[in-house]
């Protein structure tokens, strides 16, 4: 029962976020960091992220991001994240505030682990979105497999709910080093998929660093919102 009791600070943040969400409309960035189901209770981490989108013949758009996450229990992880956008690192504007939560529903009683992901997105200047969906992880031999479905509800453009997906397969090469493939996509409205869905995939590397720090990088080829856009991402998690 203790896991189900919200932390007082998190509850206050939640009321603040809901107040912000009630005041706007949205188009979410095509973020593509894969969500995993696990929590480290009592551990705080600095989450440094950097990703780009580049269309043929155009300069890349850059999204540096900074977040702080905390494991409130063995099941529940929460994170506050600020996302920026610009054509260069010297010309960045705040793009969105994000409040992410993952809650683990299983703890080893099945050959897979299942969690629920939820994220409230406050896009600066043009609205809000809410994401939620199942997060699944399993092991097949020495390969870690993740499959996630994300339902994103927007309070603009017809007040629609769209369906996105994430997947990943990571092979353990040696302790602290995994290499594999990662994929993401947007299918359009959840009950009537788009005729021009977006899919992208590519290699991903995960590397354990000093202490419990972890670095992950990926390069994906494909489309974003129906248009060609190659994507690079890097994520560094630093416990403190």
Description:
The chain is mainly beta and 240 residues long. The chain has one helix at residues 8-21; strands at residues 44-54, 61-71, 76-88, 91-104, 112-123, 127-140, 143-154, 161-174, 177-189, 198-208, 214-224, 227-228, 230-239. It has a twelve-stranded antiparallel beta barrel. The two termini are 27 Å apart. Mean pLDDT is 85; it is low at 1-28.
Task: Provide tags for this entry.
240 residues; mainly beta; globular
Beta percentage is over 45%
Biggest beta sheet summary: 12 strands, antiparallel, barrel
Number of domains: 1
Shape: globular
- Helicity, in percent? under 10%
CATH architecture, by name, is: Beta Barrel
Structural class, judged by helices and strands? mainly beta
In CATH terms, what is the fold-level topology?
Porin
Low-confidence stretches: 1-28
Q: Say which CATH homologous superfamily is assigned.
A: monomeric porin ompg
Strand order within the widest beta sheet: 1-2-3-4-5-6-7-8-9-10-11-13
> Termini, distance in Å?
27 Å
